[in-house]
Amino acid sequence: MENERPGAYEALKLQNQVCFPVYACAKEIVRQYGPFLKDLGLTYTQYLVMLVLWETETVCSRDLSKKLHLDYGTLTPVLKRLDGAGLLTRERDPGDERLLTIRLTEEGRRKKEQAARVPHAVAGCMGLTMEEFGQLYLLAYKALAHMEKRNEEHTGGKNNVNG
Amino acid sequence: MENERPGAYEALKLQNQVCFPVYACAKEIVRQYGPFLKDLGLTYTQYLVMLVLWETETVCSRDLSKKLHLDYGTLTPVLKRLDGAGLLTRERDPGDERLLTIRLTEEGRRKKEQAARVPHAVAGCMGLTMEEFGQLYLLAYKALAHMEKRNEEHTGGKNNVNG
DNA sequence: CACAAGCGAATTGTGCACAATCAATTCGGA
DNA sequence: TCCGAATTGATTGTGCACAATTCGCTTGTG
Fold it and tell me: Which residues contact A27 (CB under 8 A, 6 or more apart)?
């Protein structure tokens, strides 16, 4: 088994994986948000939805899905709960009945104040310098953009089959 | 509402969050693994467990939990499935009946060959240079280490209540 | 109008992920 | 020896996360 050429399985060692620390780091970040968001009565995913709404007031479901990289199977129940909590409303677009318009309520708007100090608090948990935050931000977005593009090519690329 | 001092809510904009691209990037990475791991008959979490076993042959449940940053509520069903698939065995440590010893089977060992090319393939999906991979790796581990330390301080810190 | 094609969402099923809780085991004293 | 505290890990309940499927709506074509 170990008579292979040396390093044949080096890439499989956990220490040599780039993906694992990113994956573990993301989970750890969500966990750091936990206590702060509990005060707001939100989960991390619900908080992401609220971030978008605090910025735009209204958004259609399709755009929300694209912005947050979440599909409808995830968003539908999340939006139902936030609607149930009175933080947003869901209504069909009169112009196109397929589209769902999500709108921030007054109660949802009030949460914005409480939430304002959360990002800084969580950033402090991570122990990175400003410069490191900047690097991490750019690297994550660069990888994200590349993978996003790949996905589009592979699903939209069906047309390429026929030349 | 917008009469606040300018920038009071800047930190709440999705674009200004560092956490979001890391979170989205991690999910996107797991998705990129999908097709490759499907050939192996593994999910991403199951693959992580196998990575550890391919390296160490045996591991106790506590160490696995710490290495992968996963608690028993997550690991127990994952290990059950991998046991059911014949890739590992679970047995109690004779010396300490609380400990669970997880052992790679011959069938599990065979999967290692198929898996050997997966890391490189996924790395290619991310579109980063070698240098960028190195940076991302270091930044993620640095943040991870800092948050890990914080967690220990806060749970072990119960004793501080009594002075 | 009729109808095929394709999109937007909802539903269903599987598998994490973790908090909270509980049970069993071990260990440290008195 | 026996009791109390700490550790390990299994269970339960909630909430993502996504693939696959389904259904209603819109749009393009004749």
Answer: B26, B69
Class of domain B18-152: mainly alpha
Of residues B27, B55, B135, nearest to A135 (C-beta): B135
At A150 the pLDDT is: 77
Which one of A4, A10, A27, A28 would you mutate to disrupt binding with B, by most B Cβ within 10 Å of its Cβ? A28
Chain B CB within 8 Å of residue A110 CB: no
- Centroid of chain to Cα B40: 18
pLDDT digits (tens, 9 = 90+) for A65-83: 999 999 999 999 999 999 9
Would you say residue B156 has pLDDT above 60?
no
> pLDDT tens for residues A43-65?
999 999 999 999 999 999 999 99
A113-150: string of b/e by CB count within 10 Å (b at 16+)?
Answer: eebbebbeebbebbebeeebeebbbebbbbbbebbeeb
Q: What is the mean pLDDT of chain B?
A: 88
Question: Which residues of B in 103-162 have their CB below 7 Å from strand D's atoms?
Answer: none
Give yes or no for residue B95 having a pLDDT over 90.
no
Residue B8's nearest CA partner among A115, A29, A59 is: A115
From the Cβ of A79, is strand C under 7 Å away?
yes
Q: Between β-strands A100-104 and A88-92, what pairing exists: parallel, antiparallel or unpaired?
A: antiparallel
Instruction: Give A123's pLDDT tier (boundaries 50, 70, 90).
Output: very high
Angle at A48 between CA A77 and CA A110, to 5 degrees: 95
Domain ranges of chain A: 18-152
